[in-house]
Amino acid sequence: MPPRLVRRLLFAPAVLLLAAWAIVSLPVAGLVALVIVPFVPGRWRPVRILWFTFVYLLIEAVGLTAAFVLWVASGFGWKLRTPRFQELHYLVLGLALGFLVRCARWTFNLDIHVDERDLDATELTGRPPIVVLARHAGPGDSFLLVATLLYRRWRPRIVLKSVLQWDPLLDVMLNRLPCRFIPASTKGRSESIEAIGRLAGSMGPDDALVIFPEGGNFTESRRHRSIVKLEELGLHDEADRARQMRHVLAPRTSGALAAIEAAPHAEVVLVAHTGLEELSTPVDLWRGLPMDAEVRAKAWRVYPHQIPEELAERKTWLYEWWLRVDTWIVRQQGITRVPDAVAQRVRELTAADVEFHPDDVGG
């Protein structure tokens, strides 16, 4: 990544200029999109993607402007870390992501169902902190999850890849909040795990630490490589469990378990989703963007007393939960074209009418 000063002086102004250019050129770009509609598969795909890109640029520009105003109002950064300005940053982030999700739902005619009961509680403030362990299969799931947390008045502390700092708004906002950008390479991995522990250990009421244990978007090649890596490390039991998973990668346990260890008072929420899998690259965005489709998400809450105390047992516990996340996805998508072991497991669970509940697992 370029140094932070370079990103601030170049990237943010570039977005503002690009947004201004988009406003001026929208009529011409819209006509071009209309012309090519008959030659592109998907109902009004070019027009929809053009509109969503336009709105995304506007959100970036307005968000960056708001971030600059907050920086000036805080005494040119002097009070940015105070509770008041932290709350204002969460407010701006929540408005931006909420508007983006609503725009995506309307533009692409998405039917979004989020079972968020286990993200909520009787009260909307003063709740015990939570550690959110979520499936990762594209940027869309991250935006939807964080927008949902902010809507439910949680203060998310997000652990995410450093490459996302190429997005100027995320770069500015999340570097001002208690979040952590993790380098893609293994260099500095121990420091990253320690940082995750510090983030979790300092959580208070209404804080939510968000981690994607898979470490990257799910693809078949990554699934294969993760299994091979586990075998090379001599983790044969974990490799066998990973082979049973059809739609998720084997979880990288270090970061997730470091967070749980550092915050023994926190509850754990596991999140699965389906419908946003094909959005890993710009090419995927064009070819696989879900339109007129259904997006479903489900959360399960696990309480501290249900989490094993021993490290080895916690690793097994996390793998078992990831198997359950995978099974939920298989149930949503159907059991065709999945490994026989997975299909058989789903048939057995369905035949027994088993419902997943936090009380089913734990210490």
Description:
54% of the residues lie in helices and 12% in strands. The radius of gyration is 21 Å and the shape is globular. With 363 residues, the chain is of the alpha/beta class. It has one domain. The protein has twelve helices and seven strands. Helix 2 runs parallel beside helix 5 and helix 8 (236-244) packs parallel to helix 11 (311-333).
Identify the notable features of this structure and list them briefly.
12 helices; seven-stranded mixed β-sheet; globular; 363 residues; alpha/beta; disordered C terminus; 7 strands
Question: Nutshell version of this structure?
Answer:
The chain is an alpha/beta fold and 363 residues long.
Which word captures the global form? globular
- End-to-end CA span: 42 Å
H/E series, N to C? HHHEEHEHEHEHHHEHEHH
Query: How much of the sequence is in beta strands?
Result: 5-15%
Q: Outline the biggest β-sheet.
A: 7 strands, mixed
Overall mean pLDDT: 85
Number of domain modules: 1
Strand order of the biggest β-sheet: 1-7-6-2-5-3-4
Helix-strand makeup class: alpha/beta
